[in-house]
Write a structure and sequence with these properties.
The longest helix has 67 residues. The chain has a domain of 39 residues. By secondary structure, the protein is mostly helical. The chain contains four helices and no strands.
Length: 112
């Protein structure tokens, strides 16, 4: 994992807000007397909520695709390891057979 990924992961970690966070926000909103002057208009709020939902859905889709890709890579890796183990055992058998043949040849033709 590179530095950028570590920093991104760290900045996106869930952190609990202070216990009185909601009360402070509400108190500040009502302190001015006009809640719309503190926050965005109703339409702006709706657009922000829609954008946040779209980002969450997109992020979830990306995360799911990444998990699938990693699982597929892991399966491919396991298949490769099994294939290499099979190949290794077959090559070992061939090597043993060749050694036996070589010993027989030396026994039958000692002058060589």
């Amino acid at each position: 994992m590179n530095r950028f990924e570590r920093e991104l992961r760290e900045s996106l970690k869930h952190r609990e807000p202070p216990a009185d966070f909601a009360e402070k926000v509400v108190a500040r909103a009502y302190a001015t007397g006009d809640s719309r002057s503190v926050w965005f208009s109703r339409t702006a709020q709706q657009w922000l909520v829609a954008a946040a939902v779209a980002l969450m859905v997109g992020g979830g889709f990306f995360y799911q695709q990444e998990q699938r890709r990693r699982a597929e890579n892991e399966r491919t890796k396991e298949q490769l390891i099994v294939g290499l183990q099979i190949t290794s055992s077959k090559l070992r058998r061939v090597q043993v057979r060749l050694e036996v043949i070589q010993k027989r040849t030396k026994y039958l033709h000692p002058e060589q």
